[in-house]
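Q: Protein A?
A:
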Amino acid sequence: MRILLERGDIAQIVRDMAQAHARQFFLRADCPNLSALPPEHRQATATSALEFFNLDVELLASLEQAKTLEQRADIIYGALRQKSSFSITFRTSGSTGRPNACSFSAGELAEEARSLAGFFAGIKRVVAVAPVHHVYGFAFALILPKFLGIPALHLHPLTTADFFRTLCAGDMLLAFPLFWASILKMSQNGITIPIPDDLRGVTSGAPCAPGIIAGLLGTGAGGRRPFLSEMTEIYGATEFGAVGIRRDRLKSYALLPHWRRARVETETAGDDIMPVEWGIRRLSGKPLPMPDILDWKDERGFIPVKRKDKAVQVSSINVFPARIADMMRAHPQVCDCAVRLMCPEEGDRLKAFVVPAKSDCIGDEQAERHFRQTLKTWLAERLVPAAIPKSIVFGKALPRTLSGKTANWRIPQRGWEGHDGTV
């Protein structure tokens, strides 16, 4: 089956790209009027669209001059119709530095969709809250429905009454861990949620906690039936797309049919990486190293252990605490810094402990507030929102363990409420 992107598909991609850009730069995410945007933002969103669809650079001026998102989608649709085939380029999250470009040919996208289609027989419709300009949403909310011959509905990830009334029996709800957690919390708080028959879920982008999946599949308070009849976990990466699948949290992921385990020679060997390790390859293609350390149970079964690059995931985006701390140390008013993921009871974002170059601000609430805002503004110019620590606290020295390693720290109240890097 040949993949054809319809005009509506392109419009959805353009809308999702514009909304993501708007959120990053504090712009109106629901405004389709591109002419209302400052010139630099029109140019940035046009360039992103050009690169995503791998269009000729001569089209950039037309994309910039488009007055609405619909006009921009028309330009892209017309350009793609002139091509015999197409490729799509996704970008990694780029939490620090420049994001990597990862291109997929139409043949590779079709191969993945064929591989996935066999796992989703009986689905009547895909309902997606995952954005389609990322590899996960693109594959499952745009391409897979074409292979299954079913419709797809794209909704904002807002758990409102209207959202739940939209769901129908036989739907497959495509989402991410934070969204699933919000639904479970509503249920646990006693909020009545209308549940259609045979509602299936798919999650990816970050590991979904076992308690969340169990809660969505289990009987609710008062004997309410489970929210989901089935949850499918997808393991993948922007560089590869979907790699593994499982429907039982206690079992291994299974490689999708278009992947094979293959030996990979690595250039360097670190604490966690061996000179020769297992990677994956397509049915026709070279072996590729994995971004995670995988515990292979057999030729096709594996369990992810941890990231090789010391990344953690925040809002389904890979961020690198050590690199972020190095960047913060470059600030002229910072003497030392540590960055790490919050404890579960604190939240699910990053936190930072900063040793100021001048300690006279420590303990002065107004001075700390000013310095925290200065750091927040400085970081917002250099990092994506998920990489900005939500809590920034100050001290005269980094907390240390008896062995001299940086210790964990608790978040005091004034380092949290109202003085964070939320964007």
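Q: Protein B?
A:
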Amino acid sequence: MKKNRMLMIAILIFSQVLFASCILPKEEEFPAAPLVHEYEGADYGKTKVIKGDMVHSVKVTAGFKGAALHELEHTASYSYNRRVQKVHVEKGSKVNKGDTLLTYSYNALGTEGSEIIDYDTAVYEIKAAQTKLKNLRELLALEQKRLRALGANEKEIQLVREEYQASMREVESDLKVHEMEKKEAADMLKEKNLVSPVTGTVRYVKRNMTGKEAEPDGAVITVEEKSENRFEASTKYAGYFNEGEKLNLSVGDVIYPVKVKKDRKYKKRVYFYPLNKVNMKSSNKAGEVTCILQQKKNTLYLPSSVVYKVEDKYIVYIEDENGLKTTADVVKGAEFNHLTEIVSGLKEGDEVITN
């Protein structure tokens, strides 16, 4: 009986141990450590090498200029009374540069009916005086030579010389007067006619001018210059435009093809002549044209911010075949407008790390 009880106790203990071993948890299994790249955990982006045109440009404003109006007035004259003798044009007349628009008649100032100096007469008198002066000098030389040949003394020769010199001084004085008359006549001729400064069309003629005094008192004739509509710009960038090149000029949403013309006198001024009709009545409007300052065509380039100088070379950061961040040497070319030309070291489409 006692033996059987001990057996039952042993069986019970064994069963509890066996049951406990069945409910124990298995040992936890952890996944393998992941591969960590050098740049993982940092924010970065990439950009591609582009093949195309590198352009550095600015916008230039050009004002619209229609046909110019030239308002002509009587000029002031301080030596003559002038009256309008004849008007040669009327409103609508077509004129060329230099054509006579009206003619004046003259009288010496303060002397009604006084004779006016004639330019041709003054020229004739100058030539006559010059010839007379030349003859007197030649005659003096011959007379001195003749007197010396006859054995005249120096006192006698001096008396003859003084006579000739007195005559020459008188002619020289007359010559100066005639030269002044010539200048005065030339000035008068300039004022005798009012001429058109340009080729164009007469748009205004003051009424009832004939016979009246020609006093400066506002415009008497207006001529509209025959010129093409154009846009005009005064800019420090004028030298970047080429004579005859064709560009596009924008006025708001309207694009006008234009042709460039340089100003030979004013180096900072440039004109843009529309190749088609311009429908603008106001000369206050302005357009814009793109001025190219620098340009590299069909080349590889990157943003300048991703190209670094390290000692005596230039590098960029790229991702290698193993996914690791590394560097690549490049040969740098032109740099402008925040872009850098890549001469060698990369090809089109290559990706470069930006940070």
